[in-house]
Design brief:
The protein is α/β, with parallel strands linked by helices and about 180 residues long. Helices cover about 25% and strands about 30% of the residues. The protein has a single domain, classed as Rossmann fold (3-Layer(aba) Sandwich). It starts with a strand and ends in a 7-residue tail after the last strand.
Length: about 180
């Protein structure tokens, strides 16, 4: 795959996280009822960063968990015979809480549908809100994010690659051209 554009560097990513954190505080009129749940894999460090930023601003500890949606995917039968399971760890009740689901990229909406299904099995949240670093369009389901770091219109022949610690050393967001036959 060929790099077409670098749309965010580490500084821009920090700014986006800071802005989203402030929007979450404002929309929820504070944070006493807010919990963060990162969708495995790259949503997890983003959720941690949002929780840390909110914690600094509000002088609170925001409960944070991680969610693996593998068994809730509508394409599970198309995955490998032994899909990689990253694990779910939500060490708090979500009942009557404002759950902020966090992911790196919003594309078709299918990942978020699966995440909402998994969350609803854990309890009855007061609200489920969505925070994403990148919204690239091309929705197949009626799902919209509440908080967006950056809207990046793309073609279906492009891929958004979010490079974030601990998975990569240089943090950035790239648009890649996958017309060379690569898969997303």
């Amino acid at each position: 795959m060929r790099e077409k554009a670098r749309i965010m560097d580490a500084t821009a990513m920090k700014r986006a996280v800071s802005r989203i954190a402030h929007e979450i505080i404002e929309k929820n009129k504070g944070t006493p009822n807010v919990v963060m749940i990162g969708i495995q894999r790259r949503g997890v460090p983003l959720a941690g960063r949002l929780a840390a930023h909110i914690g600094q601003v509000e002088n609170v500890t925001v409960p944070t968990g991680r969610l693996d949606i593998t068994f809730y995917r509508d394409d599970l039968s198309l995955l490998a015979a032994h899909p990689v399971i990253n694990g779910t760890d939500i060490p708090f009740s979500i009942t009557d809480r404002d759950v902020i689901l966090v992911d790196d990229v919003l594309y078709t909406g299918r990942t978020i549908r699966a995440a909402m299904e998994a969350i609803m099995e854990l309890g009855r949240a007061r609200t489920i809100q969505l925070a994403v670093l990148i919204d690239r369009g091309h929705r197949e389901l009626p799902i919209k994010s509440d908080y967006v770091g950056k809207n990046v219109p793309t073609s279906r022949s492009e891929l958004i690659a979010v490079h974030i610690a601990p998975f990569e050393t240089e943090e950035r967001v790239l648009v890649l051209d996958k017309t060379d036959g690569g898969a997303e």
